[in-house]
């Protein structure tokens, strides 16, 4: 049984609880982060901590924990649950003032709820899915306008994942005004020649922590990076495509809406970026 962290306490998962009035539960009024663990160490903890602060600020929510303490909790959960490869899920909600109301409760008297738990995933880095590549479908992006904030409002992305599954695919890319925004839980890229193309940062997409690192490594490896919009049709004609996320690193995409990219197997660029990313991030892990 896992040991989880709730509001300052380490508890067996079956003994951990929060209020039924918690605004995370009632209103999806909360933010989250997912940090990966390789070799028992945290990948890009700093990036996730910085984005967490930003998400909280954007929603005028107090941060209940310092960065140093947050690092300690992450490390303690890795230790207690003996995680070599896996994920740490962190959620902070606006808490509960003991009732349901659309207006935010007084931040002076309502403390945020903080929950962390681990997900053990042996073989996360050496994933067969990454060797095979993902098949994706495209769906309309009908999410709200602040996708840069990492909120727990994940119903539509979950529905998108189910639409993909029903179509016999792995995931979905979302399209708005004709252009791809991002995947259900990852950022989206296409490759044409030596050029990596991905949508520029704005409120339309999550500012991926993996995205920042991968684009840095790509530029360091003399690959050309173009941050601009692209359509699903352009993606179908690309040499390669891939996604990035803390939970799947760099994942090649081999099929879009039934159209195979290249020869239908992972190409040259995405597997190379995956390897560079894993090597460099293992070295920098804490
Ligand atoms: N999802 N875009 C969306 C919509 C996401 O949900 C995620 C991450 C990303 C990639 O961000 P990062 O590289 O910081 O993980 C992009 C996490 C992994 C999840 O919901 O499980």
From TrEMBL:
It holds the Pfam family Aminotran_4. One of its GO terms (biological process) is branched-chain amino acid biosynthetic process. It catalyses: L-valine + 2-oxoglutarate = 3-methyl-2-oxobutanoate + L-glutamate; L-leucine + 2-oxoglutarate = 4-methyl-2-oxopentanoate + L-glutamate; L-isoleucine + 2-oxoglutarate = (S)-3-methyl-2-oxopentanoate + L-glutamate. SUPFAM superfamilies: D-aminoacid aminotransferase-like PLP-dependent enzymes (SSF56752). Keywords: Amino-acid biosynthesis, Branched-chain amino acid biosynthesis, Pyridoxal phosphate. One of its GO terms (molecular function) is branched-chain-amino-acid transaminase activity. Its cofactor is pyridoxal 5'-phosphate. The keyword Ubl conjugation does not apply. GO terms for cellular component: cytosol. The keyword Amino-acid biosynthesis applies. Pathway: Amino-acid biosynthesis; L-leucine biosynthesis; L-leucine from 3-methyl-2-oxobutanoate: step 4/4; Amino-acid biosynthesis; L-isoleucine biosynthesis; L-isoleucine from 2-oxobutanoate: step 4/4; Amino-acid biosynthesis; L-valine biosynthesis; L-valine from pyruvate: step 4/4. CDD domains: D-AAT_like. It is an enzyme of class 2 (transferase). Its EC number is 2.6.1.42. It comes from the Bacteria. Belongs to the class-IV pyridoxal-phosphate-dependent aminotransferase family. Acts on leucine, isoleucine and valine. This is Probable branched-chain-amino-acid aminotransferase.
């Amino acid at each position: 049984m896992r040991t989880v962290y709730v509001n300052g306490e380490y508890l067996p998962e079956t003994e951990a609880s929060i209020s039924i009035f918690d605004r995370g539960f009632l209103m999806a009024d909360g933010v989250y982060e997912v940090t990966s663990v390789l070799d028992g160490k945290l990948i890009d903890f700093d990036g996730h901590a910085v984005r967490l602060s930003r998400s909280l600020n954007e929603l005028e929510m107090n941060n209940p924990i310092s960065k140093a303490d947050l690092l300690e909790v992450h490390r303690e959960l890795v230790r207690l649950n003996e995680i070599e490869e896996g994920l740490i899920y962190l959620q902070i909600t606006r808490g509960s003032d003991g009732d349901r109301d659309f207006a935010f409760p007084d931040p002076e008297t309502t403390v945020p709820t903080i929950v962390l738990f681990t997900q053990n995933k042996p073989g996360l880095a050496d994933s067969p899915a990454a060797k095979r590549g993902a098949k994706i479908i495209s769906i309309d992006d009908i999410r709200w306008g602040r996708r840069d904030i990492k909120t727990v409002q994940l119903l539509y992305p979950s529905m998108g994942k189910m639409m993909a599954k029903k179509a016999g695919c792995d995931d979905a890319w979302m399209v708005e005004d004709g252009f791809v925004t991002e995947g259900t839980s990852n950022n989206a890229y296409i490759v044409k020649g030596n050029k990596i193309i991905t949508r520029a940062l704005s409120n339309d997409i999550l500012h991926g922590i993996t995205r920042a690192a991968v684009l840095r490594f790509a530029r360091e490896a003399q690959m050309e990076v173009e941050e601009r919009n692209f359509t699903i049709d352009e993606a179908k004609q690309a040499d390669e495509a891939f996604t990035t996320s803390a939970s799947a690193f760099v994942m090649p995409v081999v099929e879009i809406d039934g159209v195979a990219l290249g020869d239908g197997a992972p190409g040259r660029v995405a597997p190379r970026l995956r390897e560079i990313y894993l090597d460099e991030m293992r070295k920098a892990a804490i």
